Amino acid sequence: RDFWLAAFSGFCCVTLYQLLSTHGLRTVPSGPASVLVDTMPLFATLLSVVLLNQRPQWRTWTGLGVAVTGIVLIALG
Fold this sequence. Notes:
This protein is mainly α. Helices cover 86% and strands 0% of the residues. The longest helix is centred in the first third of the chain and has 25 residues, at 3-27.
């Protein structure tokens, strides 16, 4: 029953991700671009909490905190 919605969502997400990341990689220096690409698990986790009502364990939140700290340090450096 949810096949077509899931297929459409997957198609849009994959297509949009490829188009937007390619555009970003062409317009942003390679250092910040690699940091942005490496934050995809962070955004996937946050979206699963918001959209799917997932309840991550404390280790997940700790890992996200370390990831955000690393992103901030790289962005400021």
